[in-house]
Specification:
8-stranded mixed sheet; 19 helices; 2 domains; about 45% helix; 14 strands; alpha/beta; Rossmann fold; about 425 residues; 6-stranded parallel sheet; globular
Length: about 425
């Protein structure tokens, strides 16, 4: 992105956070649906639902807001051609009131567990229907929410409809105060969006950029969090001499961890290249270890992986999305801490595609087996893809149906998308 364009986008973002929205958005008010997708993950969910909804009702006026800079950029790139995209105001009454008055939506949507009290109160004060889509309460967050149940209960009980991502999340939402009669289980739309996302050409471009030969084997360690690094290094030291054609691509979850990764690999005298240097053609030689210091390429990198390890799971961080490699039919390994993705872990285990490792040595052993046994590796990848297909089937479609039903009720349109395939609780 050019510097001028970046400055313009950041200026729009900060103005939007104060509730001062772009004229290209306010001039099209009132909007049928406003979807709040706070960051990159929620933008992916919103995108799947938006495209399904527009496929059913092409004339819908939908605007998606995002709060973080990365989320706003992703929404602009992926959704700007099909719906409105705007910054999300901070949850202060004045900023919220200004934005709601400018947008005047008929239905307002929260994604997952982004419950902003001022926003919801202002919507409901103006008679705007509110929905929670892809509702998700993880095992890690549930005890924290229970401590403030008196606050959370009122927010949840006021929703016109809640679409829970799993039966486990539905049970937790009910315990926190959601209305049973207005809650349905639809599945997780984040996973449906993954099914069609792989683009082999983009994956090949990543391999070419990093100088990795087509026949080489690759271990991608994605979404690495603090505490995972030592295990990754231990595994690499066990694998690098046994598999001379193996490359390791390390992708930290947060860019501020890049410096620490560089230091740790340097301390172990392990040569590495920085992705940004390869991207800028600054390196004349590519090391077998590549540290990715850019946001964005991880999903495509899973497309070149012979084996993928998903981080935040050896360190006690709750894990990251272990089904992203599965979209590429890639064998998936992960640590014991996947509390944030219980449904995904269960789906993999049901198909015997689970790849639990408890430390760096187990990561090395499982990786070595998969690299040495092509039939087992292929079967593991196919089972992982099947697990994704099972858990993803129709989730975004069902949530789009529920969304359109709420919109139709507010506008008096004679439509019935009643989530008949959803399991009511």
């Amino acid at each position: 992105m050019h510097a001028l364009s970046l400055r313009t986008e950041r200026s729009e973002l900060w103005q939007g956070r104060m509730g001062r929205l772009p004229e290209e958005i306010t001039s099209h008010a009132p909007w049928d649906i406003w979807i709040q997708a706070v960051s990159v993950g929620e933008v992916g969910v919103a995108g799947a639902i938006v495209r399904e909804a527009l496929g059913m009702e092409p004339g819908l006026k939908i605007v998606v807001s995002s709060f973080t800079e990365a989320g706003y950029e992703r929404a602009s790139e992926t959704l700007g051609d099909v719906c409105g995209v705007m910054p999300c105001p901070v949850d202060f009454p004045q900023a919220v009131r200004r934005a709601v008055g400018a947008i005047r939506p008929r239905v307002f949507v929260c994604i997952e567990t982004e419950l902003w009290p001022s926003m919801l109160q202002e919507m409901r004060r103006n008679g705007i229907a509110t929905m929670l889509l892809n509702g998700r309460i993880s095992a890690r967050s549930f005890p924290r929410y229970m401590k403030i149940r008196s606050v959370i209960s009122g927010l949840l009980h006021g929703f016109s409809m809640i679409c829970a991502g799993s039966s486990t999340s539905a049970r937790r939402l009910l315990e926190l105060g959601a209305c049973k009669e207005r809650l349905v289980i639809t599945g997780n739309a984040k996973y449906q969006a993954l099914l069609a996302r792989p683009e082999p050409a983009s994956a090949r471009a990543q391999a070419e950029l990093m100088g990795i030969p087509p026949a080489a084997r690759v271990l991608v360690a994605g979404s690495i969090r603090s505490g995972d690094e030592a295990h990754i290094i231990q595994a690499w030291k066990a694998l690098e001499t046994r598999f001379p054609d193996l490359h390791l691509v390390v992708v930290p979850r947060h860019l501020e961890n890049v410096t620490m990764l560089q230091r740790l690999f340097a301390e172990q005298s392990i040569p590495f290249s920085l992705y940004s240097h390869l991207q800028e053609k600054g390196d004349s030689h590519t090391a077998r270890v590549i540290i990715v210091d850019r946001i964005g390429p991880l999903f495509d990198l899973y497309g070149i992986a012979s084996v993928a390890f998903v981080g935040g799971s050896l360190a006690a961080k709750g894990g990251q999305n272990i089904l992203e490699p599965a979209a590429w039919s890639c064998p998936v390994l992960y640590g014991p801490h996947t509390e944030n993705f219980e449904d995904a872990t269960a789906a993999l285990e049901k198909e015997n595609a689970g790849g639990l490792v408890r430390n760096g040595q187990e990561l090395a052993d499982r990786t070595a087996h998969l690299l040495s046994d092509s039939s087992d590796s292929r079967a593991a990848g196919q089972a992982a893809r099947k697990a994704l297909e099972n858990i993803a089937s129709g989730a975004a479609t069902r949530q789009a149906e529920a969304l359109i039903t709420q919109w139709a009720m507010k506008t008096g349109n004679a439509l019935d998308y009643s989530c008949q395939r959803s399991e009511n609780r």
